[in-house]
Amino acid sequence: MFRPVTTIAATVLLTFSGVPASMATAEQTWQPGQPPLTTPWTDQVGPDNALPEYPRPQLTRERWLNLNGLWDYTGGENATEQILVPYPPESGLSGVQRHDDQMLYERTFDVPADWSGQRLILHFGAVDQRAEVSVNGRQVAVHEGGYTEFSADITDAVEPGAPQRLTVAVSDGNETQPYPVGKQRNDPGGILYTGASGIWQTVWLEPVAPAHVTKLDITPDLTGFGINARTAADDGEQVEVAVRDAEGTEVTKTTGPAGEPCAWTSRNRTCGRRTTRTSTT
After folding, report:
1. Which among 33, 210, 57 is positioned nearest to 119, based on CA atoms?
2. Hey, which residues does 125 pair with through a beta bridge?
3. Boundary (domain end) residue, out of 146, 181, 208
4. pLDDT tens digits, 20-31
5. How far apart are CA 64 and CA 204, in angstroms?
């Protein structure tokens, strides 16, 4: 068992002790529907606890803002109402409980004052099927496909000193659009089931340094493992990777060029073109 610790230029530790984010405040006009299937926890869900947990097991950072909760929602020709994100419109917990081919989500949020000088990354766990994301009327992302996460750097779209307006326009025709849908159908029955449209995973925001780790690729094998820290760093910057045991004791550490993989075996570790002997404790 190990914990990767990554550094770009100055030391940046990727800790695993994220703190709960504050939920956005909204008028409590949302009412859940009666779902066809319930659990012992269904009645416990509401605007103040809509998936409040930190959503990413890797690259956990202490500062983040959970954007789940009540959003304004317009589906097709229906009047604007409120929806509980990240529950799909078809679900009872969303408060909508119907399918709309066209969906418009809107809400505002405030950027914490102590995030000044950082890049702001907006994350979506999943949106089904095609999503167009705008901040303050400026498009920041377009994503197709309902099962994969996506992110956008929204720093340049943020307006200092004002609430930020976030808009997500979504289209989802289930089997009528050219995207993988599994067994979701507009007319469910038998082995086919009701679709899960729109935003159906956590939406969240985090501040990062201009040079930061964007993703960790960890590949184990029989002789060791490899780590590739994908970064938003410039050429020539270095990544430091440390391996710690279950008790947190550092076992080994090495550095290498940003964007190049590091590999450990029982005898050697390699980052980029450099190979050194591996020490263990």
Report:
1. 210
2. none
3. 208
4. 333 334 444 899
5. 7
Summarised one tens digit per residue, pLDDT across range 152-173 is 999 999 998 899 999 999 999 8
What contacts 24+ positions apart, CB below 8 Å, involve 140-149? Answer: 144/179, 145/179, 145/180, 146/172, 146/179, 146/180, 146/181, 146/196, 146/200, 147/180, 149/123, 149/124, 149/125, 149/201
On whether both 50 and 174 belong to a single domain, the answer is yes
Is residue 176 located within the same domain as residue 75?
yes
Q: Record the pTM.
A: 0.80
Within a domain: residue 35? no
Structure-token pair, residue 32: 């859940």
Q: What is the per-residue pLDDT across 183-225, written as a single tens digit (0 to 9) for each?
A: 888 899 999 989 899 999 999 999 999 888 888 888 887 777 7
Domain count, the chain: 2
Domain boundary among 155, 180, 208: 208
| Range of the structural domain that residue 229 is part of | 1-30+211-281
Residue 199 and residue 218 in one domain? no
At 105, the amino acid letter reads: Y
- State whether 18 and 60 are in the same domain: no
Distances (CA, A) of 187 to 92, 102, 128, 190: 18, 17, 17, 10
